UniProtKB/TrEMBL annotation:
The chain crosses the membrane at residues 65-85, 92-111, 117-134, 146-166, 186-211, 218-240, 252-273, 285-305, 317-340, 352-373, 393-413. This is DUF4153 domain-containing protein. Keywords: Membrane, Transmembrane, Transmembrane helix. It comes from the Bacteria. Signal peptide: none annotated. It comes from Dyadobacter chenwenxiniae.
Length: 414
């Protein structure tokens, strides 16, 4: 995208076409280039245009609003299926929680990106296959492969959402990075919506309680369920129609939490040594250790995704680099603990899944750390780190397919 912008800087029509083809990627690429083009009048005009933010909130067109309302109602009705048809709630939600929201979000981006019919059919077919498959798995409460399949099916649906977000366009790596940024923005926006909804719920229930009417059970079983199902759909709609709402908040969060997480991680590793706790003999500690690893890795990717299109100070780059290095150390400890447990007690579905996931994460972190080091030494810019992250995402998608669909067959549904 950067090369195309430079090539067409004196061609306003072509520049406008590039912008309308992929606005987020154009903006990220332009912001990276602008420090070198400040003396160019055309570049100054585009800088003013891209950084103009309206103070008013856009509610989109009537078609978009209608779509969001219908999608929210359908998501709420799906969430109510156990109550309406007398289905066991644990059975339904453990297997189908991802189908409440993800298909609606996929449909939103398929519509917005005007995807080719063939790609839409593949996306719908994969979603339907996942729905049928997970509900046909044997209902064995002690089955580790069932739990793994349920968890990884949700990640599988998240990956399909990524395909819908990217659409049929070119510069796929940049769009994948945009998908990670969208996830960060969605977490912020959905969190705000849920906080506001929680306050409204508390006020409503207590107001009715003052006049002697207890509505909490009815409220949570009906209005609350629809509200929870609608929150990510409404959050997605708001982040896409009003990027300025969280466009400045998310980068600030990333910049504040990256150094804090780095310090916390260093202190935690030292405290772990003194506490005598280790992931080699304590299974629960190993699970928490791996959860910590995934969380920190997500923060690294979120930090890169939020600011890869803007100028980053050398200190910020160093923080992300050091965080990557420390996370690689944490990953190495977790990986050695898993290998130790396998050598001592043999292979199980859980150990195989954790081992594979940790190996993939380690490779990804090494690639990212190498790219960040090249940024520090001036051989690359931050955009290359984002491309590395984006190009690796399909690897995780393949792994979710293996764990969700193949592991139950390999391990005999144990």
């Amino acid at each position: 995208m950067k090369d195309q912008i430079l090539l067409n800087l004196d061609n306003p029509g072509q520049l406008e076409k590039l912008y309308r083809t992929d606005k987020p990627s154009f903006k990220r690429a332009f912001q990276t280039l602008y420090p070198e083009l400040q003396d160019n009048m055309v570049a100054s005009f585009w800088n003013a245009r891209l950084n103009f933010s309206s103070e008013e909130i856009s509610w989109g067109g009537s078609k978009e609003l209608t779509f969001v309302i219908i999608a929210s109602l359908i998501a709420g009705l799906i969430a109510k299926i156990p109550a309406m048809f007398g289905i066991n709630e644990e059975f339904f939600y453990s297997r189908n929680i991802g189908f409440i929201v993800f298909p609606a979000l996929m449909a939103f981006f398929v519509w917005k990106n005007n995807m080719h019919k063939g790609n839409v059919i593949v996306l719908a077919g994969a979603t339907l296959a996942g729905l049928v498959y997970i509900n046909l798995l044997p209902d064995v409460n002690t089955s580790d492969t069932l739990v793994l399949a349920c968890i990884h099916l949700a990640l599988f649906l998240w990956s399909l959402l990524g395909f819908a977000f990217v659409g049929d366009r070119s510069n796929v790596s940049e769009k994948r990075l945009g998908f990670l940024k969208y996830n960060g923005d969605l977490v912020v926006m959905t969190g705000l919506i849920l906080i506001a909804g929680g306050i409204l719920t508390a006020i409503t229930i207590n107001l009715f309680l003052l006049i002697g009417i207890k509505i909490d059970e009815f409220y949570f079983q009906n209005i609350g369920v629809f509200g929870l199902a609608a929150a990510p759909i409404v959050g997605t709609y708001l982040t896409q129609t009003n990027p300025q709402l969280v466009g400045k908040v998310s980068p600030v969060i990333a910049r504040i939490f990256s150094p804090l997480v780095l310090v916390m991680l260093l202190v935690y590793l030292v405290a772990m040594v003194y506490s005598g706790k280790d992931p080699y003999n304590d299974r629960e500690f190993l699970l928490i250790f791996n959860a910590l690893l995934v969380g920190v890795m997500a923060i690294i990717f979120f930090s890169v995704a939020e600011t890869s299109g803007s100028h980053k100070s050398r200190a910020e780059v160093w923080v992300i680099f050091l965080l990557s290095v420390v996370t690689i150390v944490v990953n190495g400890i977790a990986l050695s603990a898993i290998l130790f447990r396998i050598s001592e007690w043999g292979i199980t579905p859980n150990r195989a899944a954790v081992l594979g996931g940790n190996v993939l994460i380690l490779i990804n972190l090494l690639l990212v750390a190498i790219q960040i080091y090249k940024v520090i030494t001036g051989k690359k810019d931050v955009m290359e780190v984002g491309k590395t992250i984006g190009s690796y995402l399909p690897v995780y998608f393949i792994w979710t397919i293996i764990v969700a669909f193949i592991f139950p067959l390999i391990f005999g549904f144990k």
